[in-house]
Amino acid sequence: MLNIKNYHVAYGQSRIIENLNLQVKENEIVALIGRNGMGKTTLMKSLIGMIPAQAGQVLFQGQDISRDKSYQRVRRGIGYVPQGRMVFSTMTVEENIKTGLSSREKGKIPAMLYSIFPVLEEMKNRLAGNLSGGQQQQLVIARALAGHPKMLLLDEPTEGIQPSIIKEMAQTLRRIRDEQGLTILVSEQVLSFVLDVADRVFVIEKGLIVHQEERQSINAEQVAAYLSV
User: Fold this and answer.
1) In the chain, at which end, N or C, are there fewer CB atoms within 10 A of the end residue's CB?
2) Whole-angstrom distance, CA of residue 145 vs CA of residue 177
């Protein structure tokens, strides 16, 4: 589904991502795990087209999207959930979701979204800024799903969310993958969430992939060592 080859991303003279290679298979959940400042958010923003790459290639379903603008990548089927949730706080829950709808939906929210996130249906007329952190995270995921993406990029979805909600989120993401046939790439630094949600795990350190492993054989202590300061 996604093939990143010899990828380099820089801010000015500072190279953040260095010769990164990563593949994500169709219907797979891959976690990119690492400490703060290791390049996770930079990579996510680059994959959705917000930050240009300096070198390398991104193939999505076999097509080179390296030079595509953000809106073109969304049209191809990539959904993006940014770090920090970024809801439209003065709009209602329903209005927030509608901003993510494709033109063919004609303003009608798919019933599937409310079945996955029933709390959003209960609160559809509430201002998004009045939701809890966990509810806002559900909202931005629902908004991204409203456009019927083939792949979802999630940047640190557990940030600022209580542990009980984190476990529910992992279950919800696996349900979305199973029911909607979605492929998911998630960046994270909470190891317990990664172990709950991912099929494969990549560890990023200073812009490089330094370790990768299948979920079934993962050595949690070894991965945790990468996350320690």
Assistant:
1) C
2) 11
Residue 135 has, within 13 A of its CA and on its CB side, a CA count of 19
| Structure confidence by residue, pLDDT tens digits, 177-220 | 999 899 999 999 888 889 889 999 999 888 888 888 888 888 88
The rounded distance, in Å, linking the Cα atoms of 9 and 50 is 11
Copy the structure tokens of residue 134: 């966990």
Query: Edge-to-edge strands of the sheet including 78-81?
Result: 78-81, 151-155, 183-188, 29-33, 200-205, 208-214
| Residues whose CB is less than 8 angstroms from the CB of residue 178 and which lie 6 or more positions away in sequence, other chains included | none
Report d(CA 112, CA 116) in Å as an integer. Answer: 6
Question: What domains appear along the chain, each with residue ranges and CATH number?
Answer: 2-227 (3.40.50.300)
Predicted pLDDT at 229: 58
